[in-house]
Amino acid sequence: MTSQIPDKLHNDSGAVDLNGLRLYGVLVDAPERRHRWRGEAYESAAKATPDRKCTCTALWRGHVSVYRLTADGTMTLEAFEYPFHRGRDPDPVGECLRGDFWLMLSRSFADYKVYVPFRDGRIVVDRAQWRFETDDGEFASGSEFPPGYEQPKKLNIVEKMRRERLAKATATLIVRADASLPLADYTLYVDRNYAGPAIDRGVAGLGDNSVYIRMLPGSHTVTLRQGREHRPDRLVSNTLEIQFAENEQVTVRATLVDATLSLQVQTSS
After folding, report:
1. pTM of the model
2. Count of CB atoms within 10 A of residue 187's CB?
3. What does the radius of gyration of the chain's CA atoms come to, in whole angstroms?
4. pLDDT confidence of residue 156
5. pLDDT confidence of residue 169
6. CB neighbours of 203 closer than 8 A, spacing ≥ 6?
7. Residue of 160, 78, 147 whose CA lies nearest to 116
8. pLDDT recorded at residue 243
C-alpha cells in the first residue's frame, strides 16, 4: 500500500514528549492482538466531506484530521483539511474526544507503531501503560522503553528479505583480479541478477581489488560485465556455473587478456 499522509497533531501538553512521532489514527480498542491487528477507528460526531474526485493514492481517505492535545491532557478535533481540493478551506470542528481511546503514532507510515492510551478523555502519562510494537508482531509495555528511547527503524520488505537470505547464506564467493582489471569498473551478476547491493569489497588478505558475496548453498551462475550501462561494446565474461556446498568458499579469478574478459574457478575449500 502507498504510504499515507498522517493526520496533524499539535501538542500543547508539557507532560508528554511526542517529538518525531506522527499521528496515523485514533483507535478505540487496545493493541493486544498479534500481526494483523488494525483496531477500530474512533468515530467522531463530526464527519469529513471529501470530494472523491480530489483524492490521491497517498491520501485515500481524502482529508487530513487536525487534532490538538491540550495543556490539560484532553484531545480536540479542530478541523478537517482537504489538501488535494484546491481552493477549499478547512472545515472547522472543535470537538472534544471522549471516553477511552488510543493514539496510533509512528515516525513514518510503515514504521513500528507506538500506542498512547486515553482514559475518560485524558492522556495516560504513565508510560508503563503505553504499547510499543515489536518486530515479532507483539506489543511491549512502555515501561521497557524509557523516555528518549528511539525504536529501531522497521525494515522494508526488500531489506528484510535480504537479511533473511544472508542468515541462510553459509557459502562464500570471492572474485579477485590483478591491477590491470579494476573490479570497481565491473559489475557482478549472480544468477543473471545484479549483485551490487550484496557485495563487500576488499577481502582481507586479498587486497582492495577483490569482492565477496555470501551465497546460498546450491548451484549458481556467475558473470562479470563492464560497467552497468548497456552498450554494444561493453565487455562480458563467460558464465560460470558453480555448485556451492554448505560453508564452502569458492574463489574465482577474473582476467582481461586481448580484450577477452574471463572467469575461472581458482580454488575451493
Report:
1. 0.58
2. 18
3. 27
4. 60
5. 84
6. 174, 176, 210, 211, 212
7. 147
8. 94
